[in-house]
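[job 4471] stage=fold_predict status=RUNNING
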Amino acid sequence: MFEVSERTIELTLPIAMAPAAANESLMRVMHALSKPDGSPEGLALSLQLTDLHVRVAGEVVMPTQVHVVDRPARWEFGLSIRAASNEGIFPKFEGTLSLTPVGKHAVELWLQGHYAPPFGAIGALLDRTVLRHAAERSLTSFLRRIADDVIADAKEHYDLRIL
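[job 4471] inference complete, writing structure tokens
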């Protein structure tokens, strides 16, 4: 019998920015995500069709709802990401987004957590075969978007040449 289990995700992206500035910018970006009116316009998980081994150019886009829990003393946020509609046919992600200083002028942005594929054993089988790495790739895209937003926020608030 095929065992249904949650899948673990651990992703990191480097950002060349002073840790304090990165943390302040990340806080502003994440607070914007946690507003009661929902996620910023256009926030979605996306996946290229070629990532699904389809020989056609295109992209699958899933608008999301993101629930954020601020943990400022630890430079991290609790995250819950799910589809904005048709929740039952997409995985739900639960985890943390955090910053780790790696010097005076650099940080690593981490996304760690787990998801469970929908549809029980059939969904788990699809996730391990046809959709292999699809969730990881879409979450990597999400992490890049957050990193880009942090950098854009820092450019608005700081002279990045001195960070």
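[job 4471] summary: The CA atoms of residues 20 and 100 lie 11 Å apart.
[job 4471] exit 0
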